[in-house]
Amino acid sequence: xxxxxxxxxxxxxxxxxxxxxxxxxxxxxxxxxxxxxxxxxxxxxxxxxxxxxxxxxxxxxxxxxxxxxxxxxxxxxxxxxxxxxxxxxxxxxxxxxxxxxxxxxxxxxxxxxxxxxxxxxxxxxxxxxxxxxxxxxxxxxxxxxxxxxxxxxxxxxxxxxxxxxxxxxxxxxxxxxxxxxxxxxxxxxxxxxxxxxxxxxxxxxxxxxxxxxxxxxxxxxxxxxxxxxxxxxxxxxxxxxxxxxxxxxxxxxxxxxxxxxxxxxxxxxxxxxxxxxxxxxxxxxxxxxxxxxxxxxxxxxxxxxxxxxxxxxxxxxxxxxxxxxxxxxxxxxxxx
Amino acid sequence: xxxxxxxxxxxxxxxxxxxxxxxxxxxxxxxxxxxxxxxxxxxxxxxxxxxxxxxxxxxxxxxxxxxxxxxxxxxxxxxxxxxxxxxxxxxxxxxxxxxxxxxxxxxxxxxxxxxxxxxxxxxxxxxxxxxxxxxxxxxxxxxxxxxxxxxxxxxxxxxxxxxxxxxxxxxxxxxxxxxxxxxxxxxxxxxxxxxxxxxxxxxxxxxxxxxxxxxxxxxxxxxxxxxxxxxxxxxxxxxxxxxxxxxxxxxxxxxxxxxxxxxxxxxxxxxxxxxxxxxxxxxxxxxxxxxxxxxxxxxxxxxx
Lengths: 336, 304
Hints:
The structure holds two protein chains of two kinds. Chain A is mainly α. Chain A is built from 15 helices and two strands. By secondary structure, chain B is mainly α. Chain B has helices spanning 20-29, 37-61, 65-68, 81-90, 94-125, 131-141, 150-159, 167-170, 177-190, 193-201, 206-235, 238-243, 252-260, 268-302. The radius of gyration of chain B is 24 Å and the shape is globular. The model of chain B is unreliable at 1-30 (pLDDT under 50). Chains A and B meet through helix 1, helix 2, helix 3, helix 5 and helix 6 of A and helix 1, helix 2, helix 5, helix 6 and helix 7 of B.
């Protein structure tokens, strides 16, 4: 019966508990006790939640969970593209541990991740703060800074690859005007990584700014009133009131951006042009995703590629664990 | 935009149907300081940085390939836009890619919205065993990167003969965890349970409840989710790049990757014309529906 199901829910009470069990009433009204209609009706009530959530779980099982596990199995085999599996145990993983390309890709993923995520989120915070003032044309500014989000990775990267071109790109022309020599954005390590980070930052800053803005608008006003009565400057209010109040949102964006940064693929690949798959002529911006693609689809070693995929999973779990720890410590410090 | 001056954070009684996000916005909007000139300077600068690459994309697409790769790069539009467009359309098949992308994004958006609404409704308002646990599972799946499943997926679609076929891109995206969670968050607050109960008491079966109660209430959120998913599917790169080929049945992003990597003659004006073709439809959507998209993005993020 519906009531008993509800009672068994234990710790998570539904936000608005339905007051009366619907099934028995319907039975009485429609066709008397025990009729086929009531059976059908009760079955409808009981089973329908599962029917409604089934599409998600079936799709996830078929295209998410099963492949995830099978990738784990493949990572323990030698598998050529289109060939059969041959058991290798942990060999793919030990090979990775001794491969300089793997460590290079891991480090690149980390550095590009940091230099794209940190400035991106800081600038988004600043922009959100500006947009939170009483503004003329606020709707226009919001849509304008969100415009890069409408472009695809491919389109954005192809445009920026031209802007960053060493010989004729506009960025080097500008740098030339202010007296900084031409920078080799493609072949030197740090400039290339910075250029890729600029593409990522350009696409996502406005998106994050709007998320922060929405959170800022939910901060209760009395906090600001109290702060200004205490003589806090606007900057001081931003640091001591705004930032702590939107901390959960900041954590949310950190998590989302970190996950995104771990998977970086299209930007470095297309930025590199004909040597994009290997992350530049000297692998100077090859990320883990690129290395995985190169191993799997260029070299044809799917087992090795699967091992890289599982290392990425391990990294994400590790990051998730750290983030959970940090947020718990933060919560304790705040006393709730 | 007119804003109410009500600054007192009153606790209003819950009125069914009104969106709480908007109420919160109105409550706090009165407190803000007026922006000074520096704010405008910085915001105009941010706007220029945001829009300049898009503008320059138009400029580059309206010159010859030779001109694009000449220093200093052109700053004003040239006269070749139509020639480049017709070349990109006919010679490198961006037209076909545009149609493919429209089909894929529409199917993915429609099915995600439908299934997410059903699942979101179940998670929000229907009692069933394991609800909390299953909802946590839905949220947890959001963190799994696509890299973890592409290798078996690639083998599966190859075995099924779906390589380079659009269904290999559509089927894995039929419903998304984000959508389920988004609709659940919306319906928890927006759909009064009494409405469902009343329909139930009148003996309405579940499909009637869905059609006559849930869909009408959920419509605004469905529209926003549809736009967000459409944008995402339109721009999706990693899996389509593996499952499709630039010379076969590409989406715009796959076709662009083919152009950019130099499979065809690298005429940078044509490459950037292709980029323009992939960007302009979404920019138009943003220009007309920008406010709703902004609202949707913030609603989805803040509540979580």
